Amino acid sequence: MSYVWMALLGFVVGLLARALLPGNQKLGLVLTSLLGVAGSFLANAAGQWLHWYAPGELAGFAASVAGAVVLLWAVGLLRQGGRDGG
Fold this sequence. Notes:
mainly alpha
């Protein structure tokens, strides 16, 4: 997969993750894209390593969105904890 395609897919996945996660995430487009790319990469790598699905299957896209939602949730917790003082 080319890096440009992975970045575009990560951006879409990041936007979907923000839409699915309740609450107000105050993240910019760059951080949303980076979280989408990271979630997509981690979920796809883990799913293929565990032989849950093959490359290019729809389950990989769903896992990418789920991975991005988890990362977005974790970043929201970290940012909220830093703002409230711990």
